[in-house]
Specification:
About 35% of the residues lie in helices and about 20% in strands. The chain is an alpha/beta fold and about 525 residues long.
Length: about 525
């Protein structure tokens, strides 16, 4: 992972391969952002004009390289677009800085050291730039030939392999290494992004190398490392405990299900949160098999569990004064002679019965068991995270997740906190009229309801398993969890680690006593 450092060096004197500056889009052309004063001075105040000559506009995501001014220790300047110039007396938004830093990090793949001279006015800017750099430099190379050679003790990676290495070090100019707030912001960015990138790794690992048992083993090892108590229920314990949803979904696979409990309980914690993650390590759809073209990325159907895992570990690493318990509902949904059939009835952990009309609506079944179990510990709030429905992608697109809840104030709080972290979210309703569609003639409810509003129907189904008086929210991350397109900002192709920042920030707000 890229090393993040704070430096008091100036842009002209820092020994690096490149200096990164920001440029914004003004009404009359590109505008050099704060932080780049030394570079602009090196160009006799004409940096904006030089960039415009080279075709730069300052648009978000734009990258322009040019030789550094005479006398600079770094040979290259990289100007990255920040988007529109802020209104008068306003600073650049943290998300603009985060995205620009991510774009710069991606553009600097193969570079050993870069000086980052983006605008820094507060510790929040240090955090945003640090996060952008460390998330933008992410690369999943586990299955690349060069990585295999290195793992086998062969000769060092070839020139081609070395060119694919992420940025080695990012030195933040303008940040103050002796300032406690700046240092704390950088340390938090490192811990947070390391766990987001671990979540990304888990999402990107092929399903043949990440079964429910494999995921449980990884969680157990992380628990030992970070002082988190981990309990794993295997298929025998799940059957004995009456976890009909997890057993029903996982019984068609040779890789049996698991329920993993990760508990971080620091002294002095006044609130306790429960995070529940959907962990379908591969989703074929079961007997209701997915059509061709919809199977290839289904290794990502455990993204909710990956987010919960990363959030609990981050909370422990940051030493937050809030109890956080993570529940990973892990199963592989496969078709076989032992698989649950459409029309079967499952008795859930709560005691309720569910008629399975579609075995591809499996995520809500494993989540229902985990939510019920989490609620038994009477947390102050439960938040589940899941790549739950294609309907949510249709509603909100590929970059925004939906937020539903049984409490309007809590839904608003989660939505606003997501926005603060830079994660795109949108509050969604749970219409009463859609509940009737879940009625079953033979069971307490069915796992499918009306097709229209399917994302909301799934949320309504989950609400049935939340005890009265328990505050609960549901994040449907089906859109942003896995990026099948080209990288953008600090978001790579593949697993993204969606919702980790929101969950961690929720825990921080709870620790501060301002979650409600």
């Amino acid at each position: 992972m890229t090393a993040l450092t704070l430096t008091t060096s100036g842009a002209a004197t820092l020994r690096a391969d490149v200096i990164v500056v920001g440029v914004a889009k003004g009404a009359a052309g590109p505008v050099v952002a704060t932080g780049a004063e030394a570079v602009d001075k090196g160009f006799d105040g004409r940096l904006a004009g030089v960039l415009e000559t080279l075709g730069a506009t300052g648009a978000e995501g734009e990258v322009t390289k040019l030789p550094a001014p005479s006398g600079f220790k770094s040979p290259v300047v990289l100007a990255v677009g920040l988007g529109p110039v802020p209104e008068k007396d306003e600073a650049y938004g943290t998300e603009s800085l985060r995205r620009a830093a991510g774009v710069a990090a991606r553009a600097l793949t193969g570079t050993k050291k870069a000086g980052i001279a983006l605008p820094v006015e507060a510790a929040e800017d240090v955090a945003a730039i640090g996060e952008g750099i460390l998330l933008g430099s992410y690369a999943f190379t586990t299955y690349r030939d060069g990585e295999r050679k290195k793992a086998n003790g062969a000769k060092a990676a070839t020139k081609d392999d070395a060119g694919k290495q992420p940025l080695g070090e990012a030195a933040l100019l303008g940040a103050k290494p002796r300032d406690k707030a700046h240092k704390a912001a950088a340390d938090r960015a490192i811990a947070l992004t390391e766990e987001i990138n671990r979540a990304r790794d888990l999402i990107n690992i092929p399903s043949n190398d990440l079964t429910p048992a494999d995921f449980a083993a990884i969680a157990t090892a992380a628990g030992k490392e970070h002082g988190i108590k981990v309990e794993v229920l295997d298929e025998k314990a799940l059957a004995k405990g009456g976890y009909g949803g997890l057993i029903g979904v996982g019984q068609g696979s040779v890789n049996p299900p698991r329920l993993v409990r990760l508990s971080y309980t620091p002294r002095g914690a006044k609130q306790n949160l429960a995070f529940v993650g959907k962990g379908i390590t591969y989703d074929s759809g079961g007997i209701s098999l997915k059509p061709a073209g919809h199977n290839e990325t289904m290794k990502c159907d455990m993204s909710g569990a990956a987010a919960v895992f990363a959030a609990v570990v981050t909370a422990a690493r940051l030493g937050l004064k809030v109890g956080v318990t993570g529940w990973l509902a892990l199963a592989e949904n496969m078709p076989s002679g032992s698989a649950t059939r459409p029309g079967d009835v499952l008795r859930m952990y709560s005691g309720k019965t569910v008629e399975v009309l579609n075995t591809d609506a499996e995520g809500r079944l494993v989540l229902a068991d985990a939510i019920t179990r989490a609620a038994e510990e009477k947390p102050d709030a439960i938040v589940d995270v899941a790549t739950l429905t294609g309907a949510m992608v249709l509603a909100l697109g590929n970059r925004t997740f939906g937020v539903m809840a049984n409490d309007d104030a809590f839904r608003t709080a989660v939505y606003e906190i997501a926005g603060e972290t830079g994660e795109a979210a949108w509050p969604m309703p749970l219409p009463v009229d859609l509940r009737k569609g879940l009625d079953s003639p033979i069971a307490d409810l069915a796992n499918m309801g009306e097709r229209m509003g399917g994302g909301l129907v799934a949320g309504i189904f989950l609400r049935e398993f939340v005890p009265e008086g328990t505050t609960w929210a549901h994040l449907d991350i089906a859109g942003p969890a896995f990026n099948e397109g080209a990288p953008f900002g600090y978001t790579p192709k593949g697993g993204t680690g969606s919702a980790v920042r929101t969950l961690v920030s929720l825990a921080e707000h709870a620790a501060a006593g301002d979650l409600g």
